[in-house]
Structures are given as structure tokens and as C-alpha cells.
């Protein structure tokens, strides 16, 4: 057999080296893009944490606001400011013509569940410290998975069932509903259930958004309908017992609208740069950042052992679900 000439071997080696170099560059660029997505995700979490701090302050939860605003009024005015910020963006994207939809009823269900979820969440921030409320809100993925099984017919699997059970145990440790409802000295402080109720309604909103997206609704339409329809829907309860905001409160409401819009836009940017599975772990930064804001602004530090143990259990369970999601994606299973 005739051996390959040195020139041909050299040419082959050079081409092969070029291919490897290109692959390495592409891999490096992909990794860099993913980490850019992670930074946007962390920035979004910072904005959400700041929203929590502002809401706790102007709703009177911290005790620092003389004439606090009701949570449903805060939701309305936040959405008004957010909508005003988004109008120029919508105009550049084609105006109202680009917002046609074939499923207006499902959009309304999504908006109503989102409004209820946010109102309940703001009520929880007015009754309990930020870290505890955020820790309980981390049960959100649990309710999303359960809802996906009921509404979308998705398979849960053994790992997710175990994760759900563990998460509810962690939630029990933080809430201690037995002390709230069953103890002889029960104080009937039902505010501990507010973050869970909020998480359930937010899960409904996410599931309907997933259904709308699967039916071909563009992300632009989903975001715009949510933002603009939340204004009239949240206006219904807001005008019951309306309190005229002071100039000081108007300033905080404007900041709230900006922070909320930045949080949603940053989340969308993160998802455009990296996948959900990669970004999910960075969502835990919201708890850390919320805790820091709670401590710096209101000197709030959860000192209960049940809180820290329960929080660790919830984080473990959510991490288990992320691992299961990554495993299912790797095996090509629809999640």
C-alpha cells in the first residue's frame, strides 16, 4: 500500500487543526454567551429583590411608612408606570396591529391569575419579613410541575415526586401551620399562607403562558398583553378604599414601575442568551439579594432554626428538580 505523501499529510493536519480551532472558538463563544445570560438573570433577581424592598416599605410592612398604600393599589400604579415605559417599545415593534391574538380568553385567565398572584405576594411582604416570604415563594416550581401534570398532562416521574414531597416538608418547617392552626396557643396568623397562595396563582399564569407559547403566540404578545391588561384588572380592587399617594410615595411607585420593567426585560434577555436549565440555579440569588436588602433597609434577620433548615430543604428539592430536568433534556425527553 502506498503511503500518504508528507505534503498530503501536512495539508490534512492543517485543515484538521483549523476545524478544531473553529470548534474551540465556537465553544468559547457559547460559554461566554451563557455567562452573559447568567449575569442578566442575576441582574433581574436584583431588580425583583429591590421591588420586594420597595413594596415592603410603601405597604407599611416595615413600619416606616406613615400612610401606607394597600397592596392592590401598589399593583395598579406599578403597572401604570410599567405600561408607560413600554409604549415606545411597542410603537417601534409595529404598534397594536402586531398584538393580534386568537386566544383572548386564555390571555385574560393568565392576566387575572397574575394579578391575584402579585396582590397576594405584596400582601405577604406587608405582613412578614422579606427573606421568609421569598423562601416560601420558592415553592413556585412545585406548583408549576403539579399544574403541568393536571393541565398539560405532563409526566412527573419519581424524582420529581420525591422533590415535591421534600419541598412541602421544608415549607412545613418554615410555616409551622400546626402552631398557627392546631396549637392551643394558636394565633391564627394566616399570613403565612399568603406566599403559597401567591405561588399557586403565579404558577397558573406561567402554565397558561406556556400553553399560549406552544400555540404560536410570540413572546412580544405575551409580555404586552400581560402588562397592559393588568392595569384594568388590578384597577377593580384598587379603587376600593383608594388612598391618594403622597409626592414621596409617587416617587417610590415610579421607581417600582422602572424596577419591575427592568426585571422582566432582563429575564427575557437572559433567556435569549442561555437555556432555562442553565439559568435556573442563578434564580437562588433572588433569595440572597432579598435577604441583604431586608437586613440593610429594615434590619430583618430570620433567627429561627426552622427557617434555615426549611430553606435548605426547599433549595435541595428545587435543585433535585433542576437535576431531573437536565437529565430528561439530555435523554431527549419532552419536559
Structural write-up:
The protein is mainly alpha-helical and 335 residues long. The protein has one domain (44-330). The chain is built from 13 helices and no strands. It has helices at residues 6-58, 71-92, 104-127, 130-137, 140-151, 158-175, 177-182, 194-214, 219-238, 247-273, 276-279, 285-298, 305-330. The radius of gyration is 24 Å and the shape is globular. Mean pLDDT is 80; it is low at 331-335.
Q: How many whole angstroms does the radius of gyration measure?
A: 24 Å
Write the element-wise H/E pattern from the N-terminal end onward. HHHHHHHHHHHHH
- Beta-strand segment tally: 0
User: So what's the overall shape?
Assistant: globular
* Tally of DSSP helical segments: 13
Q: What gap, in angstroms, lies between the N and C termini?
A: 53 Å
The overall pLDDT average reads: 80
What would you call the structural class? Answer: mainly alpha
Q: Largest beta sheet, briefly? A: none
Query: How many distinct domains?
Result: 1
Strand content: under 5%
**Helicity, as a percent range:** over 70%
Report the uncertain regions: 331-335
Amino acid at each position: 500500500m502506498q503511503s500518504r505523501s508528507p505534503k498530503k499529510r501536512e495539508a490534512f493536519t492543517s485543515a484538521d487543526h483549523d476545524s478544531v480551532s473553529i470548534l474551540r472558538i465556537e465553544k468559547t463563544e457559547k460559554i461566554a454567551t451563557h455567562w452573559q445570560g447568567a449575569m442578566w438573570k442575576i441582574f433581574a433577581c436584583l431588580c425583583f429583590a429591590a421591588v420586594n424592598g420597595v413594596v415592603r416599605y410603601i405597604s407599611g410592612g416595615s413600619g416606616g411608612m406613615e400612610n401606607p398604600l394597600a397592596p392592590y393599589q401598589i399593583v395598579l400604579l406599578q403597572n401604570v408606570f410599567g405600561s408607560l415605559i413600554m409604549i415606545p417599545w411597542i410603537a417601534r415593534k409595529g404598534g397594536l396591529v402586531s398584538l393580534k391574538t386568537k386566544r383572548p380568553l386564555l390571555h385574560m385567565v393568565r392576566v387575572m391569575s397574575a394579578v391575584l398572584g402579585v396582590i397576594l405576594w405584596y400582601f405577604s411582604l406587608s405582613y412578614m419579613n422579606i427573606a421568609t416570604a421569598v423562601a416560601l415563594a420558592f415553592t413556585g416550581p412545585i406548583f408549576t410541575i403539579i399544574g403541568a401534570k393536571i393541565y398539560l398532562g405532563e409526566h412527573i416521574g419519581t424524582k420529581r415526586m420525591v422533590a415535591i414531597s421534600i419541598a412541602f416538608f421544608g415549607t412545613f418547617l418554615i410555616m409551622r401551620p400546626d402552631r398557627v392552626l392546631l396549637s392551643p396557643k394558636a394565633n391564627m396568623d394566616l399570613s403565612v399562607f399568603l406566599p403559597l397562595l401567591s405561588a399557586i396563582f403565579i404558577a397558573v399564569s406561567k402554565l397558561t403562558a406556556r400553553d399560549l407559547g406552544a400555540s404560536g403566540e410570540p413572546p412580544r404578545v405575551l409580555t404586552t398583553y400581560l402588562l397592559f391588561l393588568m392595569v384594568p384588572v388590578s384597577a377593580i380592587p384598587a379603587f376600593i378604599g383608594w388612598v391618594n399617594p403622597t409626592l414621596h410615595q409617587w416617587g417610590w411607585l415610579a421607581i417600582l414601575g422602572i424596577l419591575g420593567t427592568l426585571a422582566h426585560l432582563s429575564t427575557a434577555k437572559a433567556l435569549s442568551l442561555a437555556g432555562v436549565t442553565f439559568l435556573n440555579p442563578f434564580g437562588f440569588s433572588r433569595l440572597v439579594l432579598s435577604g441583604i436588602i431586608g437586613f440593610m433597609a429594615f434590619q430583618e434577620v430570620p433567627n429561627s432554626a426552622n427557617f434555615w433548615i426549611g430553606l435548605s430543604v426547599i433549595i435541595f428539592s428545587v435543585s433535585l428538580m433542576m437535576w431531573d430536568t437536565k437529565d430528561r433534556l439530555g435523554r431527549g425527553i419532552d419536559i
